[in-house]
Description:
Layout: H1 16-26, H2 29-42, E1 46-48, H3 56-59, E2 64-65, E3 71-72, H4 78-83, H5 89-95, H6 114-121, H7 129-140, H8 152-162, H9 169-179, H10 192-201, H11 207-218, H12 220-224, H13 228-235, H14 239-250, H15 256-263, E4 274-279, E5 282-287, E6 295-297, H16 299-310, H17 316-356, H18 358-363, H19 374-381, H20 385-392, E7 396-399, E8 402-405, E9 413-415, E10 421-423, H21 424-437, H22 446-455, H23 462-471
Parallel strand pairs: 4-7
Antiparallel strand pairs: 1-6, 2-3, 4-5, 7-8, 9-10
Helix pairs in contact: 1-17, 1-20, 7-9, 10-11, 11-14, 16-17, 17-19, 19-20, 22-23
Amino acid sequence: xxxxxxxxxxxxxxxxxxxxxxKLIQLPTQAFEQKLSHEIDENPALESGKENNDEYxxxxxxxYDDSGTETIETDINIDDYLSDDEIPSYKLHSNNxxxxxxxxxxxxxxxxxxxxxxxxxxxxxxxxxxxxxIAEFLVGNIDENGYVRRDLEDIVDDLAFSENVYTTxxxxxxxxxxxxxxxxxxxxxxxxxxxxLIQLNQKKxxxxxxxxxxxxxxxxxxFVKKHYNKLLQKLNISKDTLKTVILEIEKLNPKPGGxxxxxxxxxxxxxxxxxxxxxxxxxxxxxNARNAPELHISKDYNDMLQGYSESKDKSKSNKDAxxxxxxxxxxxxxxxxxxxxxxxxxxxxxxAIMQYQKEFFLTGDERKLRPMVLKDIADKISMDVSTISRxxxxxxxxxxxxxKLLKEFFSESMKNEKGEDISTKEIKKILQTVxxxxxxxxxxxxxxxxxxxxxxxxxxxxxxxxxYREQLGIPVARLRKEIL
Length: 484
């Protein structure tokens, strides 16, 4: 049975300008500069410099009157604009800008890829056409860390289906041995054990190297689990010899592909968005000047609009020209207003964070960091949580104690034995200190760490200790063990 009914709904929709403002707020300094440069290039009515033009605010608010018979509206309906192919391209680009299209990277020279680097080395080997094809296919299956993660049987099938090459796993393994001779050492291995052995076999022969090869070949599990006493008994060697051998293994690269990619990676310089200085016990906050560009409306475009308005020619082409100029001027004025609003939002938010964490900024002691979540700052300055999140995203502040990521100042709270709220960062700092001072011959388990923290007044369960330890990138007690 069909039914008709009326329903009232209250919906909030963001205008394209509001969406663009949110995107501007989210951008860090370098990405903001790129956006600014792009907008100036796209819109000739927008200029940078110290000059200021206040006439435009009056000019574009007036409607052009054609002898009292026709009025050209300067407001643009978004639905009409989306379906109109005559709208200028800069408008389409500005309002349809997607977060998926954002590219905040600094341009850098493109070198050859890791796989290209490996493929170029194959020319130094005498290979038949078939062997070269298989070798190149194997190189194509090497990941960024330098490993071949796929089973040889799967590679055989792929060669048959995609390359029309029929071979065997034995032939693939033979070619793989050749690939494993490429630089960097250890590349082309199927697992960590094989990679470390490849690197050791390429080293100059020595007693330590031979023992290391024996340990990795026959006692890899004991070595990984740090069962040093069992290794001493099995190999019948001294503790000093084992220490030397372990140091030899620790010098090897567990991710051989990383050595190449790190040399060819895009190194970005961190540009702080804010600066905090201490002056006679008071905190001074400033916004990076690159976030506060001096923009103004092009006087030429303003004069053009004035000229068209005074012209006696009221043809359709003249009216279209007026509309085009007004659209450019509208966009330029909106962008200038958005930049000013971005500056105000950034400063207002950062000032609230600075005041909230005043004790830390005055002392630099991380234990002075108060528990703080996005909502705390949002309530303090009467803004939405999403706006605070955008401000904190990828932004840095230059402090007397180094350049810090804004997100580092946000943390959850826990209560100590006195019932006081403390930051989880404070607990992590203490946990880090306790682990650093532990006896590495007999590292502290999570249970023991929990007991120590409780003795210090922090009522933390074992599973919470484990969570914080993992967040700090600290391995379990067994893997922190060292031979002393």
